[in-house]
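REQUEST FORM: STRUCTURE PREDICTION
Request ID: SP-0412
Submitted by: Lab K.M.
Chain count: 1
Length (residues): 153
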Amino acid sequence: MGLFRKSDAEPLGVTMAGVKLGQRLLAVGTRDPQLVAALAVKSGLTGRACLVDPDATQLAEGTKAIEKEGGLVEPICAPYGMWPLDAESFDVAVIPHTLAVTTLGAKQPRDQINVEVDVLAKYVERLLVASGSESRGPDLPAPSAGNQREGTS
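STATUS: Completed
RESULT:
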């Protein structure tokens, strides 16, 4: 049994995004309308799916393609980084640019992938330590002036 087992019912990108019913989805760019449509369907009518693109023509074409696939999205035309959205408005953000600049976009179902979480784990640890979270795990030290783990530099 693999860690990320792909269902035959949905594309690999949908499985890896992990969108669930009722979640709030932000899709950046209109590069892959089929993926955005599948994710919007997973989010469902109880969730929210927004599509952001700075180009009004591409946004309209992308929205039409997504609706043709059965997904509903709120189109937002705004330059990248200047979106009229709150920072905490979404549970999942999909940025197709990542697929274009990595080998992930070339993977096929059942291909093996290496998922490295060490960098992400370090950021999470720093946030927990810096915030003085009372729900620290047993390996996390109490907050200190340097926010460093013992024995690391």
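NOTES: The chain has two domains: 12-106, 116-153.
Reviewed by: T.R.
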